[in-house]
C-alpha cells in the first residue's frame, strides 16, 4: 500500500467472463455482469438495481470511506474555505423583458436557486419559483428549464429528482402562485411557449433516454392528447425545440456532432406543419438566429471550416437563398451569434482567445470589445429582447472575479453591473496567471493556462493539478474559479491544458482530436504535463491529473500511456469503457456519438482504432499512480458500470500497491450532487485526495 494511504483491503470483484464477437474480432470481459440488464428501469427507480451489483458498489463506497477517513477534518476545512468564497445570498443581475426584469438568486444556506422578477423600472422582487421549496425532502433535486410566457402570466418549468435527466414539466399560474394540473413526465427539460401563450412545445425522451419526439401541449388538455409535431426516427440524432425572442418562430433543431437540420413553425399558428429550412447533409452544420425579415445563418457550408455568417429570407429560407454576410476566416472560429433589430453580435475565438464583435446592420461596420489580460474568458448572455441597443456579457480571468457588463452597441458605453463577490476576500495581485505553449509529439503547440500564488517557488518543487477535457469541440475557458484557490493558496500550480479535441485553436483543432486522430488528445495532455515539468513549474512526482466525462476517458488513457508522468489521477464520471459503449446501440448516447468516436459495429477500422486507446481495454500489468474514480448511479451519459469495471480491472492487473478508489453517489447522476453546497463537499473530497497524494495534506493556505 502507498505510504500515504492506510493499509485497508480493497474490495474483490467477482469475475464472470463473457465473450463477444464483432466483425470477426472476439474479446473477453470478466466484469460485464456489473452492467444492470434493467438499466432503463434503474434510471427511473434506483431501488430496482440488482442486489449483487448494489452490494459491490456499497463495498466500493465503504472502502473509499475507510481509506480516506483520516481526511475528514481536511475535507471539512476545504469545504468551509470554498463556502466562504461564495456569497450565500447571491443574486444575478435581472434582465429586462417587457414590463419586468427576470433573474435568479439564492437565499442564505439555500442549495437551489430561486427565480424572481421585479418591475422593470424598479420595485420589490416577486419570487416565482423557489428551488429549495420544490426540492424539500428529496435526496436529489435539480431544476431544469424555466421559461416565462410573453404575456408574463405563466411559467413552464421542470425538475429531475433522480439524477437520470428525465425531467418533469409543470406549468405555474403566476397570479395564483400555484401549479396547474398540466404535468408531463419524461421530457428533455424545457418548454417553449407559442405566440399566444395558449400552450407550449416540448421534447419527450424515449425509454432509451433519446429525444425522439416533439409535442405541442395546449393548456388544460390531458397530456396524453398532446399533438405530435415531429418525430426523429434516426437514433443517431439529438433533437431540441426553442423559440425566437420576438416570439415569431418556433425552431426545431436536429443534430449529431457534425451535421445539423432545422425546421421552423409559425409561433402564431402552433398547429401548422414544421417547415424544413435545409435538409441534413453529412458534415454540414448550420444554426439559425432571428433577424426580422431574415434569419442569420451560422454555418460551415462550402468549406467554411471555422464558420461564416449568411442571411436568408424568413419566407423562403432554403439554402439556395443563403447570402454571405461575414466571410470565413481560417483560424478565426465563430462560436455563436445574437441578432438584434439594428445589430448583429458574434462571439468568436482567435489566437486561442475569445472576443466579441458588434456589427451595425445598416452600414456593415464592425468593432471589437477589447480586453487587456493575457488569458481570460468571455460569456455572451445577449438579451431577452430583440429591439434593444443593450447586449450583456461577462468577463473573468483566472485571477479576476467574474464581471457582468451591459454594453450599448450604438454608443459603445460599457456599464459594469456586478463584480463577483468573494466574502472571505480575494486580492488579484496575490496571484499570477500565464499562458504557455507546450510542443506536442508532432510539433503542434498546446496552449496551457495556469494560475499560481505570487509567492509559490517556480523551481520544480510546487505540486500541480493539471486539468483537461479535449472532446466534442468544447473549449475549457480560462475563467475565475474560487474553488481551486484552496489548492493555489497551498502552493499548487493550477493548470488547464487546451488540448486537441476542443476548438481552442479553431475547428481543425477539434478535428485533429477525434476518431482516428483521437490519440492526439492524450499525447497533447502528456506533452503539457512534461512541459510544465521542463519549465520548472512542478515535477512528475507531484503532478495530479484531473478530468471528467470525456475528460475522464482522457484520464484513463494517459494512465495507461504515461503512468509515470503523474503522482495521482482524478477521473470524474469517466467514459473509460469506450469500445463496449460504442458497441451497445441501446444506450442513450451511442448512435449520436458515432460521428465523434467512430462506429465499431459497422467498421472494423473504427473498432481497431477505439480498441487501441479505450482505457478499460488497455489496462496493463504495470505500475499506476493512486487513482480516484467518481460516478453517479443514475448517470445516463456515462453509466456507472464503466468506472466500476475499470477499477476492478485496474486492481486485477496493476503491479504496484497504490490504491484505486471508487466513490459512487447512489442518489445522483452525471452532474454529481445537485445542491451548490453538496457539490462543494464533492470538490472538497477530490481536493483532499489531491493534497494527500501531493504530500500537502497538512499544508495551511497562504
Automatic annotation (TrEMBL):
Chain positions covered by the region annotation Disordered: 1-21
Q: Output the Gene Ontology terms for molecular function.
A: serine-type endopeptidase activity
Q: Name one GO biological process term.
A: proteolysis
Under the heading InterPro entries, the entry gives:
AB_hydrolase_fold, Pept_S9_AS, Pept_S9A_N, Peptidase_S9_cat, Peptidase_S9A, Serine_Peptidase_S9A
Q: Where is the Peptidase S9 prolyl oligopeptidase catalytic domain?
A: 480-695
Spell out where the chain crosses the membrane: none
All copies of domain Peptidase S9A N-terminal, residue ranges = 16-419
The answer to keyword Protease applying to this record is yes
Report keywords, A-Z: Hydrolase, Protease, Serine protease
The UniProt similarity line reads: Belongs to the peptidase S9A family.
Protein's recorded name: S9 family peptidase
Amino acid at each position: 500500500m502507498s505510504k500515504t494511504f492506510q493499509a485497508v483491503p480493497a474490495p474483490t470483484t467477482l469475475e464472470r467472463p463473457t465473450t463477444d464477437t464483432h466483425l470477426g474480432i472476439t474479446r473477453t470481459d470478466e466484469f460485464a455482469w456489473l452492467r444492470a440488464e434493467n438499466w432503463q428501469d434503474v434510471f427511473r427507480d434506483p431501488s430496482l438495481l440488482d442486489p449483487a451489483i448494489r452490494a459491490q458498489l456499497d463495498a466500493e463506497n465503504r472502502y473509499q470511506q475507510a481509506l480516506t477517513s483520516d481526511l475528514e477534518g481536511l475535507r471539512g476545512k476545504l469545504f468551509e474555505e470554498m463556502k466562504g468564497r461564495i456569497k450565500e445570498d447571491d443574486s444575478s443581475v435581472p434582465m429586462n423583458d417587457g414590463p419586468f426584469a427576470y433573474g435568479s438568486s439564492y437565499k442564505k444556506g439555500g442549495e437551489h436557486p430561486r427565480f424572481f422578477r421585479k418591475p422593470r423600472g424598479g420595485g420589490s422582487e416577486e419570487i416565482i419559483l423557489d428551488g429549495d421549496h420544490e426540492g424539500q425532502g428529496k435526496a436529489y433535486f435539480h431544476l431544469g428549464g424555466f421559461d416565462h410566457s410573453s404575456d408574463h402570466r405563466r411559467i413552464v418549468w421542470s425538475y429531475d429528482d433522480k439524477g437520470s435527466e428525465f425531467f418533469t414539466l409543470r406549468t405555474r399560474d403566476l397570479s395564483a402562485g400555484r401549479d396547474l394540473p398540466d404535468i408531463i413526465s419524461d421530457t428533455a427539460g424545457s418548454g417553449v411557449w407559442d405566440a399566444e401563450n395558449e400552450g407550449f412545445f416540448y421534447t419527450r425522451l424515449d425509454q432509451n433516454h433519446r429525444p425522439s419526439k416533439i409535442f405541442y401541449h395546449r393548456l388544460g388538455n390531458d397530456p396524453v392528447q398532446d399533438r405530435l409535431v415531429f418525430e426523429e426516427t434516426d437514433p443517431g440524432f439529438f433533437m431540441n425545440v426553442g423559440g425566437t425572442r420576438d416570439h415569431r418562430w418556433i425552431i426545431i433543431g436536429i443534430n449529431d456532432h457534425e451535421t445539423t437540420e432545422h425546421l421552423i413553425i409559425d409561433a402564431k399558428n402552433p398547429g401548422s406543419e414544421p417547415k424544413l429550412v435545409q435538409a441534413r447533409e453529412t458534415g454540414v452544420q448550420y444554426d439559425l438566429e432571428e433577424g426580422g425579415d431574415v434569419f442569420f445563418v451560422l454555418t460551415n457550408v462550402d468549406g467554411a471550416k471555422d464558420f461564416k455568417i449568411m442571411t436568408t429570407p424568413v419566407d423562403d429560407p432554403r439554402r439556395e437563398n443563403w447570402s454571405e454576410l461575414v466571410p470565413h476566416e481560417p483560424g478565426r472560429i465563430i462560436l455563436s451569434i445574437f441578432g438584434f433589430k439594428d445589430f448583429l453580435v458574434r462571439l468568436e475565438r482567435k489566437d486561442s482567445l475569445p472576443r466579441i464583435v458588434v456589427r451595425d446592420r445598416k452600414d456593415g461596420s464592425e468593432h471589437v470589445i477589447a480586453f487587456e489580460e493575457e488569458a481570460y474568458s468571455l460569456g455572451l448572455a445577449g438579451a431577452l429582447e430583440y429591439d434593444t441597443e443593450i447586449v450583456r456579457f461577462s468577463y473573468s480571468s483566472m485571477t479576476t472575479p467574474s464581471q457582468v457588463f451591459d454594453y450599448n452597441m450604438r454608443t459603445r458605453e460599457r456599464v459594469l453591473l456586478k463584480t463577483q463577490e468573494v466574502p472571505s476576500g480575494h486580492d488579484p495581485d496575490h496571484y499570477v496567471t500565464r499562458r504557455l505553449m507546450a510542443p506536442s509529439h508532432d510539433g503542434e503547440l498546446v496552449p496551457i493556462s495556469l494560475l499560481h500564488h505570487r509567492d509559490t517557488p517556480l523551481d520544480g518543487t510546487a505540486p500541480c493539478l493539471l486539468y483537461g477535457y479535449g472532446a466534442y469541440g468544447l473549449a475549457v475557458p480560462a475563467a475565475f474559479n474560487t474553488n481551486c484557490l484552496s489548492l493555489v493558496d497551498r502552493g499548487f500550480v493550477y493548470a488547464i491544458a487546451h488540448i486537441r479535441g476542443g476548438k481552442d485553436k479553431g475547428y481543425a483543432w477539434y478535428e485533429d482530436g477525434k476518431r482516428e486522430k483521437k490519440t492526439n488528445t492524450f499525447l497533447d495532455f502528456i506533452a503539457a504535463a512534461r512541459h510544465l515539468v521542463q519549465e520548472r513549474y512542478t515535477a512528475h512526482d507531484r503532478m495530479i491529473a484531473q478530468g471528467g466525462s470525456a475528460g475522464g476517458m482522457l484520464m484513463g488513457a494517459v494512465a495507461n500511456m504515461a503512468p509515470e508522468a503523474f503522482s495521482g489521477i482524478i477521473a470524474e464520471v469517466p467514459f473509460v469503457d469506450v469500445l463496449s459503449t460504442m458497441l451497445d446501440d441501446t444506450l442513450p448516447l451511442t448512435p449520436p456519438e458515432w460521428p465523434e468516436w467512430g462506429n465499431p459495429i459497422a467498421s472494423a477500422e473504427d473498432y481497431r482504432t477505439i480498441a487501441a486507446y479505450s482505457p478499460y481495454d488497455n489496462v496493463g500489468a504495470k505500475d499506476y499512480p493512486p487513482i480516484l474514480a467518481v460516478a453517479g448511479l443514475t448517470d445516463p451519459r456515462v453509466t456507472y458500470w464503466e468506472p466500476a469495471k475499470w477499477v476492478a480491472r485496474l486492481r486485477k492487473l496493476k503491479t504496484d500497491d497504490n490504491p484505486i478508489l471508487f466513490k459512487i453517489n447512489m442518489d445522483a447522476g452525471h452532474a454529481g450532487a445537485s445542491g451548490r453546497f453538496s457539490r462543494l463537499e464533492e470538490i472538497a473530497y477530490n481536493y483532499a485526495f489531491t493534497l494527500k497524494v501531493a504530500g500537502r495534506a497538512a499544508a495551511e493556505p497562504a
